[in-house]
């Protein structure tokens, strides 16, 4: 990866990604566990994580529209403030045992993550087109670093207030997710103006009629649904039901996120060599391994293998 060709903007975005991505992985790590403590029924334990996912999905289009009008720096800094406020709201909800307020906090954290997902596009806009894929890969690598930072800090801070477990985790999270606001205050992304004379491509209807498009959408939807289902349930299953430690639960989630994003560095080359159908078939195989291992082993190693395969399978299919 030609780091020497990266601009100052790319390095700022990479550093910001390390901190910003902690919002998602801490919620994945703790959302179900905290939910099991606060929810009126265990059936609702994973609702906070679901709220975060809904927040991210619903915030994607508004984030793009806002930044097209106000600029990326404004959007990224505002999202950082929203994330920090949401984390503090989560701490307040845990302190006062307010389940629905905690769900609201996770929803708002999800909305902030919709802006964070735009980091890679800002990085691509900041370098020559031939270097853009490498800039995007660098952002993904920074997210992996955040996957290790977030759960570890949250784990160490969970007993900051002994009578209110995990309040300290969310206070620590607020400090992590506010960092991008300071880092990206120095961001200078060139303004993007659409070319009004550029010929239009195929319509959405025409694209939707393509067999490859239908296959891709079905694979992405199925893999994301399966991943969300298993990923959100794992902390509850590991810690609450099977008695594994918070530390071990965090390690499994960390490596799951590595499995999700690390293959992105080379999966493009694999697709060029072997074709997208072959890679999708490998993704299905990884998902099957995940399910089989998850059924036969509830030991730490079983969870680890299952969740890593889940992440890899999602990457190959999504």
Give a structural overview.
The protein has 15 helices and no strands. With 318 residues, it is mainly α. It has 2 domains: 1-190, Up-down Bundle (Growth Hormone, Chain: A); 204-318, no CATH class. The longest helix is centred in the last third of the chain and has 31 residues, at 211-241. 47% of the residues are buried. The model has no long low-confidence stretch (mean pLDDT 90).
The name of the CATH topology of the largest domain is Growth Hormone, Chain: A
CATH hierarchy class name of the largest domain: Mainly Alpha
Q: Helicity, in percent? A: over 70%
CATH architecture of the largest domain: Up-down Bundle
The secondary structure category is mainly alpha
Multimeric organization: single chain
Topology, number of strands = 0
- Tally the helices: 15
Number of domains: 2
Q: What is the 3D shape?
A: globular
CATH H-level superfamily title of the largest domain? MFS general substrate transporter like domains
Beta-strand proportion: under 5%
């Amino acid at each position: 990866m030609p780091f020497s060709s990266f601009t100052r903007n790319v390095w700022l975005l990479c550093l910001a990604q390390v901190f910003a991505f902690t919002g998602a992985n801490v919620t994945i790590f703790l959302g179900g566990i905290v939910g099991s403590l606060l929810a009126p029924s265990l059936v609702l334990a994973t609702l906070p994580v679901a709220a975060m996912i809904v927040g991210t999905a619903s915030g994607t289009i508004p984030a793009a529209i806002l930044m097209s009008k106000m600029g990326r720096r404004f959007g990224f800094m505002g999202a950082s403030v929203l994330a920090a406020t949401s984390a503090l709201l989560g701490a307040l909800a845990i302190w006062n045992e307010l389940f629905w307020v905690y769900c609201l906090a996770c929803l708002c954290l999800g909305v902030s993550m919709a802006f964070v997902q735009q980091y890679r596009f800002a990085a691509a806009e900041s370098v020559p087109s031939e270097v853009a894929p490498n800039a995007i890969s660098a952002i993904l690598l920074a997210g992996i670093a955040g996957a290790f930072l977030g759960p570890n800090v949250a784990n160490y801070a969970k007993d900051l207030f002994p009578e209110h477990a995990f309040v300290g985790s969310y206070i620590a999270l607020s400090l992590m997710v506010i960092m991008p606001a300071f880092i990206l205050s120095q961001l200078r992304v060139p303004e993007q103006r659409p070319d009004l004379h550029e010929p239009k491509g195929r319509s959405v209807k025409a694209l939707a009629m393509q067999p490859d498009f239908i296959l891709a959408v079905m694979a992405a939807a199925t893999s994301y649904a399966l991943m969300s289902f298993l990923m959100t349930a794992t902390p509850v299953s590991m810690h609450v039901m099977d008695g594994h430690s918070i530390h071990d639960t965090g390690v499994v989630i960390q490596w799951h996120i590595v499995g999700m994003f690390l293959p992105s560095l080379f999966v493009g080359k694999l697709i060029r060599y072997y074709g997208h159908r072959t890679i999708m078939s490998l993704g299905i195989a990884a998902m099957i391994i995940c399910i089989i291992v998850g059924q036969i082993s509830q030991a730490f190693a079983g969870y680890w293998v299952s969740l890593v395969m889940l992440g890899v399978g999602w990457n190959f299919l999504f």
